[in-house]
Amino acid sequence: MYFLNRYFNPHTPVCLLFSLFCLSCTYAQTTDKPKARYNYLLSLPKDYDKKTMPYPLVIYLHGSSHRGNDLNKLKGYGLPYVIDKGKEFNFIVASPQCPGGKYWSTENWFDSLYAELTTKYRIDADRVYLTGISLGGYGTFIAGIEHADKLAAIVPLCGGVNDDDMNRLCPTLKKLPIWTFHGTADNIIPISETERVVKALDACEGNIKFTRLENEGHGIQYLYEKDEIYEWMMLWKRK
């Protein structure tokens, strides 16, 4: 069940250029960013009201086509799509919506979302996970860099990190478990964007797992329909 708090669709023509995603990666330090509260979809486990235990939290970041002020857009693909089709999870899922004309790196939305969720709901603070696709894949990496102390693991799909933030990878993400995916035939965000992140973290002995999806393009949102990502996430707790 979803609660409204105030999907790269496989059937939508691809019209975004890689340069757009480069713009999305003009990151500032978290302390330099304006604070913001983003609306979000929330999904609770079906037994949430019957139990008193804390639950893991998964935060999902959508791609560029779902930006705006209509939360129903988020159900077009990805994790919100899977939940809307009836899949149930034994963890809480929060899916914030990035406003139109902005990027996940534009404002510090994470702190307000984290504070609100951990105040209102029974969340295990040692089991908070972050995942996102495309624009949300970039957002997952940068939020991981800036909030690694609050996260147990991250799963970026077809994302990357811009040039200015490459030198921030090892100091912040070295110890954070990461599983990242990218299609070798992606012509929107080339796989080289993920490859260079993996190379940098491998060089400093980071905890990163990389799955190359041979001959696959940008539309890898189907991965959210499988259990492997979630099972892997739940193996980790914040250190």
Descriptive report:
With 239 residues, this protein is an alpha/beta fold. It contains 7 helices and 8 strands; from the N terminus they run E-H-E-E-H-E-H-E-H-E-H-E-H-E-H. It has helices at 18-23, 78-84, 110-120, 135-147, 169-173, 192-203, 228-233, and strands at residues 2-5, 40-43, 55-61, 92-96, 123-133, 153-157, 178-183, 208-213. The two termini are 31 Å apart.
**End-to-end span in angstroms?**
31 Å
State the CATH superfamily name: Alpha/Beta hydrolase fold, catalytic domain
Number of DSSP strand runs: 8
- The mean pLDDT is 90
Shape: globular
Radius of gyration: 16 Å
Query: How would you classify the helix and strand content by structural class?
Result: alpha/beta
CATH topology: Rossmann fold
Which CATH architecture?
3-Layer(aba) Sandwich
Order of helices and strands: EHEEHEHEHEHEHEH
CATH class: Alpha Beta
Helices, by number, come to 7
What's the story with the biggest beta sheet? 8 strands, mixed
* Poorly predicted runs of 5 or more residues: 6-28
> What share of the residues does DSSP label as strand, in percent?
15-25%
Number of domains: 1
As a percent range, the share of helical residues equals 25-40%
Report strand order across the widest sheet: 1-2-4-3-5-6-7-8
Organism: Emticicia agri
Signal peptide: 1-30
Domain Phospholipase/carboxylesterase/thioesterase: 120-221
InterPro entries: AB_hydrolase_fold, Plant_Biomass_Hydrol_Est, PLipase/COase/thioEstase
